Amino acid sequence: MICPVCGTRRARRGCPALGQQICPVCCGTKRLIEIQCPSDCAWLASAREHPPAVAVRQQQRDMTLIMQFMRDLDHRQSQLFLLVTTFLVRYEAPELQRPVDADVVEATRALASTFETASRGVIYEHRPASLAAVHLMAALKAVLEEAGRGGGTPFERDAAAVLRRVADSAAAADQIETGSTRAFLDLLARVIHPSDGREGAAPKSPQDTPRLIVP
Q: Which parts of the chain register pLDDT below 70?
């Protein structure tokens, strides 16, 4: 049987998430990224208990990048960074509007400009160019407005700074891992673990932020 995921290699592993056999390569490279593995998956448990050396190096590299992206952020800004990036991991895009890193850059920069304008007392919504980025920005704005309710100008300034940092991080990840349009989003999916287990939702406040998966 040929693996239904890649369509090239022989299917040898039963995948409980897909309900069919897939190849070991797809199992190893797509788990928790493109395949939503259940917590009781034997292959997932085995990989966590005995990760191969290449996976350990990838985890270490990923965590180094995340720490670089969060450098110089204070505690509140770090909480907001995790809030935004967790939202990106959980975001369920409208049909045919699955975002890539370029959409993340557009959406977060436009939303940062919107918060910067608001912090000066002017209500004006900056809008990104791509439709996927427009949808992404609207959903992220709702999450941040809920988290910052009552925070006033200080929150708006912090949110703008964090959104700029997320945009710069997404652009930097694309430069580090050339050839991938979702290098930043895939990185986040590997290292950010939402703590409450709900799909398609983001934490409602910085106090509900997730934890990083530390190797």
A: 52, 54-55, 194-215
